[in-house]
Amino acid sequence: MAGSLPLVTPFGTLYTTNITPDGDTGIGRWSEAAFTRAMRKGIARDGHFLYPAFPYVHYSKMTDRDISDAYAFLMSVDPVRSVAPDNHMMFPMNFRPLVSFWNLLFLHGDPPQDDPAQSATWNRGRYLVEGAGHCASCHSPLNLIGGEKGSELFNGGIVDGWHAPTLKGMATAANPWTQMQLVAYLRGEVASEHGGAAGPMLPVSLSLAQVPISDVQAIADYLLSLQRTVDGPPAPPCQALKPAAPLASEGAAIFAGACASCHGDGAPMRAVDGRPGLAMTSALQADDPRNLIKTVLEGIPLSTGTSSHYMPAFADSLDDQQLVALAQYLRTQSCAGRPWANLDKTVTTIRSEGEPK
Amino acid sequence: MITLNVNGQDHHLDIDPDMPLLYALRNHLELNGAKYGCGLGQCGACTVMLGDKPVFSCLVPAVVASGKPVRTVESLGSADQPGPLQKAFIEQQAAQCGYCIAGMIVRAQALLEVNPTPDEQQIREHMAPNLCRCGTHVRILAAIKSVVASGVKL
């Protein structure tokens, strides 16, 4: 909680600030009223405008009680003395008062009114998704000035180079999510027929594993009720090429040597632990190859203190051309009818995005 | 036919392209330093260098390594003439059963070639993928730090 985590935005890099109760460098001298104003209006104790990367647009929808509880909790943790590095924002975004205009456009808070036609669980789920959970921050496209596009809410977005998929129509997709699968996924477990969280969603799921399961069930209830709104028929179900791609291909050899000890049909992880086949995973079913490429390059880090899924990173062993061959092979195994276009360019771009500037 | 460049020498091997590099090194080239531990990229006993990067050779298909320089622990010295890290590991008695040690030394070598003066935190983070079931991590760290302190260029 001592901050200094870099957030790379299209407008420059921000560093999260210290929210431990240290008097000089944290929020130790903030009154509850100042904290509430920051959460609801995006204004710091000294009056400066906070950048909307701090999701007050969503926190403003929390109840007074929850904000008050959050304040009490933050004031109870051990203070840490730590000053975040200076932000590097581009002109004109480095002029904070401009945020006030942004707020006129995008900040319209207040907790949502319960919908009496829906269950208490659904209403609880909507409250958590729109408020404290702020799912839309990643799972919606942002407009040119970094506001969530209201008309495209939950239509999916890009965060840290990962594709945050649409949250609409999950229950009716070609490979549909059940409530049980989504709850497992959201709590950091491996969901049958879908897989486990990776990238920026991994820490989110590990946090959700610590909240009461009833709240995660409520979130799942609400998310699964979101209907697909895009025009036109949904994408047809993914199907493997029959017969399977020839085993002599380079991609097949790479899969056999690098992946099959865990992901092959006969691998103990599949046979004993019941993990889903790769072809079923969201990363391979998606029409955007990003999440597969990111996962292979970066792997999935070990999570301390909990049993979880793990995958080693392959950025240092596979070159771009080998990664393309592997991705092509895997896509053929899962969704032969819709091959990924421009894989060469995508792989090169994603790898260069991940390198330190 | 796969060509592997190992420790500076080309080898033409009649092996399948999907054979893990580890098997080719041990069974075909008789370089038995790198060990088979988990076969899943979770323990690091099989660590070798591909280019200048440490990789799990159990998860590198031969076709992936073909055409790139591979270096194993054998390239870093011999029993008669141990290299700086090997010498330090002996001096610090860092090996108990010794199964993880070749991987540990190779991973440490990769770090010190790029950063000759890592601090303790950098060493710990870099070495994290390699496990020692005997629990000699403290001595392994001491051995690496002694090479850093000696100022020897690797």
Word description of this protein:
The complex is a heterodimer of chains A (357) and B (154). Chain A is globular and about 65 Å long. Chain A is mostly helical and 357 residues long. Chain A has 15 helices and 5 strands. In chain A, the strands form 2 sheets. Chain A has a 3-stranded antiparallel beta sheet, with no helix packed on it. In chain A, strands 4-5 form a two-stranded antiparallel sheet. Chain A starts with 5 loop residues before the first strand and ends with a helix. With 154 residues, chain B is of the alpha+beta class. Chain B has 2 domains: 2-73, Ubiquitin-like (UB roll); 76-150, [2Fe-2S]-binding domain (DNA polymerase, domain 1, Orthogonal Bundle). In chain B, strands 2-1-5-3-4 form a 5-stranded mixed beta sheet, sandwiched between helices. In chain B, strand 1 (2-6) and strand 2 form a beta hairpin. The termini of chain B are far apart. Chain A binds chain B through residues 250, 252-259, 261-262, 310-312, 314, 316-319, 322, and chain B through 16-20, 39-42, 50-51, 53-56, 58-64, 129.
